[in-house]
Structure formats: structure tokens, C-alpha cells
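Appendix B, Record 12. Input sequence as logged:
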Amino acid sequence: MILKRKIKFSRIVISFFWICLLIPFNTSASQFLQSKNTQTNLWDRVRSGLTLAAPPDSKERRIIQASYAKNLQMFNRIVSNSERYLFHIVEEVERRGMPMEIALIPVVESSYNPLVKAAPGNPSTGLWQFVPRTGKHLGLSQTIWYDDRRDVIASTEAALNYLQYLYDRFDSWELAIASYNIGEGVVGKILAKTPAKDKAKGFYQLNLPIEAKQYVYKLLVVKDIIANSKKYGIKLRPVPNRPYFDTVKIHKPIEVPVVARLANISEIEFTKLNPAYNGFVVKVFDEPRTLLLPKDNSKTFLRNLQIYQNAKVPWQLYHVKKGENIQMIASRHGTTAHLLRTMNNLLDNREIALVNDQVLLVPPPIKQSNTSVVYKKASADVYIVKKGDTLYHIAKRHGTTIDQIKQWNNNSNISLSIGQELLLAKN
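Logged structural output:
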């Protein structure tokens, strides 16, 4: 009996011990989640996750600080650019337990503009500015239809995977960030030649190329401005602490203007959220493609897509044969050379040399109406002017007026030429 009482008492003591341990943990976890969810300004959430130490005072650091502090308009433009993408990146950085400074790398790389053009001779692109070779190494597809280096979700996942790999290799976020800039091979060779006693002095004492140190300086200066914006006289534009976009899947090709129309957004907004797509048409191959749409518009798009019959566009892929040109292919498929160039991002008004087995996206044949050539666009019928046409005959043939045609084409003094395109029945 005494033994049973001792066992029972021991169980009570052990249970009490674990309860005491778990209460503070659960309380702190609950407080963290509550704090995260109640923050209305995303910048507050960013600030709470900043962990890297500021670099030592130096001439380079002061120059970088001055360049940002003196150009408040530029900094506010970067903040404005970030609004579409920052929440998603912060969520991913936080989920992985990374320092929040990582979410600021696109400030340095692209000014948070996925369509920014790199300097001449620099093939990098996207928020994270991947060059083609690195992009392919990280699994980012690059075709004539889309470039996943500019895809917001795919490129962010690749960048964070790569940065985590660099951290695991070098056991230092500063070295990981420097390697992201100049390459892990360069950093690895320098560390291999560095004595252990010198490594122990820290990142800023390593004999790294100046551009690598300046890159880290720049990132941490940006971090300091975000953390202490009042000190710099900068009032950061608030960014809502909520998702900006939703993802939707499409299973068939669709024109960009049609997506914009169905989602009730501008084509500019579509392109900023979906910068990976290169052409007039979002092409779907073996697997569905993902589109990003503003959170308030995604349901509108899906609802309208179901009832929009013209969204089913019967495009086909055509493999160019040796000796063929645009005009030959257009004639064979009942379309126009201009439309074929537009669909495939080929320069107009210029004969493009096609390569054997090059893949072209060919639209459906244009319809014939009273010997008139007409094809459908997202928001209008387009008439191709033929020999002998006059505005009077075109208007009469299509049941409209000359003035209406001029209005649709924003031209009060239309001079017709063979092959010219006129908008008709504009919605």
C-alpha cells in the first residue's frame, strides 16, 4: 500500500513538473501568434524579425547610408513596389526561421521590381535577380512563353532554398548573403586560404572582395533604415499585414487581356503580379499554370471564367520547317503575319529569320465575313483592310458608321492601307 502511494505521489509530482514547463511555453507561443496576427502594419512584423548585427562604422557604410537618406523619394518608391510581394516573402522567411533581413534582399537586388532591367550585359532578372545559369541550377524554367526567374512564388522559393543552403555551408548569414552576391565558389576559395584565427575575427575582417562587403553593408543599412526610420527622417508607407494576392490555376491557354477583363483588373496589374509570362497568351502545356490575382479579384475571375465562352482559345504549337518564313506560315494557317508576330513576341515590320524546328504559337484561323478578313481580340473584332476598301464600304458591310469606326480607332482622319487593322464592335 505504501509503495502504491509513493508511485501515485511520484506521478503527481512529475505531472506538476511538466505542467509548470509547458505553461510558459504555451503562453509565449500564444503571445507570439497573437502579436503576429494583431500587427496591422507589415513593417512592424519585419522589424520584430530583424536579428543580424549592424556592420562596424566605416566610410563605405556612411556613403551607403547617405545615398538612401538623401533620396527619400527613391526609397518610398521601393516601399511602394514591395506592397504586392512583401507579405508572401515575409511569410516564407518567417516559416523557415530565417532572419528577416533576407526579406529585404530584393530591395538591394531589384528595388522590389520584378521587371527591372539589369545593366547592359547583365542577364539577371526578377525580384531576386537570377542569371540564367543559376536559375536553371535552382530549377527555374526559362522558355519563350515564361521565365520562372520572374515568377514571384517560384523565384522566392528558389532564393530562400539557395540562401539556406549557403548558410548551412558557411554557418554564417553574412557569408551566405555575400555568397549570394559574388558566388559560393569565390567565398569558399577565400575561406580555404584563411587561417582559423583570422576566421574567428568575424565576417568584416575577412579578406573578401570589396563588392561583397558593400553588398552586405547595403542590405544592413536598409535594415537599419527600416528598423529606425524616424532617425533617418523617413516615414515608411504602411503595408497591410495581410495577403495581397491569391493563386488560381488555369488548365487551358488564355489571353492576358481576357484574364484582366474577367478579373476586373488592368493589364498592368496582371503583369506586375505575373511577370514571368512573356507573351500575349498564357500558354498551358502538360500541367496547369498558376496565376496570381489580387485577393479581392480572384473569386471574380473564377466566377466570370466559368461563363466566358471565348476563354477557350484553340491555340496550337507549330514547328517551323526549313526555309519557312512568317508570311508563309500565316497564309497556311489562315491568319496574318502581324498577328503571328504579336502572339510570339517577334518584332513587327521586320522580317525575322526563323530557325528550323522553332516552336511558334499559332492562333485559330481568322473568320471570313463577306470576303472581309476579321479576327477576334479580347475586346473587339479586328478587320484587315484589303484592296479597294473604303471606310464607307467597311461601315456598311459591318452595320456601323464611319464616325463609329473612327471613334473605335481613336482616329478622326483614318487613311486606309492594305493589311491595316481596324477595330470593329469594340466592347
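The chain is about 45% helix and 10% strand.
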